[in-house]
Amino acid sequence: MGVEVETITPGDGSTFPKKGQTCVVHYVGKLTQLLQSYLCSFFSGSLTDGRKFDSSRDRGKPFKFKIGKQEVIRGWDEGVAQMSVGQRAKLTCTPDFAYGSKGHPGIIPPNATLIFDVELIGLE
């Protein structure tokens, strides 16, 4: 449980966000659903249904937040902290590191695992 960071494009490898620093990112967020079948007790997996729920790229404006200050979900606070400037990564956030059992009504269902394509553009 938590956040998994999978590099898509490496960054500079040396400039990492420090607590309280403003991160400038572009991102696309998608939903996943965990499928469990009682008919096939040996199978369980995840299916990306492809539903995009948010994207800074669609708005044409990067998103800014202060790292480690709980301005974003825990998966971002911990995941983006592991990224270096210029890096693009897939962040997979389990519900306990995202919106939990409540979800975000009308957008994110309860207990949803979220996948983000995040690019750390810069730090301020």
Structure write-up:
This protein is mainly β and 124 residues long. It has 2 helices and 6 strands. A hairpin with a 7-residue loop joins strand 2 and strand 3. The radius of gyration is 15 Å and the shape is globular. The two termini are 30 Å apart.
Q: Give the oligomer, counting copies of the same chain as homo and different chains as hetero.
A: single chain
Helix % is: under 10%
Number of strands: 6
Radius of gyration, Cα only, in angstroms?
15 Å
What structural class do helix, strand and pairing data support? mainly beta
- Number of H- or I-type helical stretches: 2
Please give the largest β-sheet: 6 strands, antiparallel
Mean pLDDT: 87
Instruction: Tell me, briefly, the overall form.
Output: globular
Order of helices and strands: EEEHEHEE
* Strand fraction: 35-45%
Low-pLDDT windows of residues:
35-48
Rounded to the nearest angstrom, the distance between the terminal CA atoms is: 30 Å
Features:
2 helices; mainly beta; rotamase
Can you summarize this structure?
Helix content is 9%, strand content 44%. The protein contains two helices and six strands, in the order βββαβαββ.
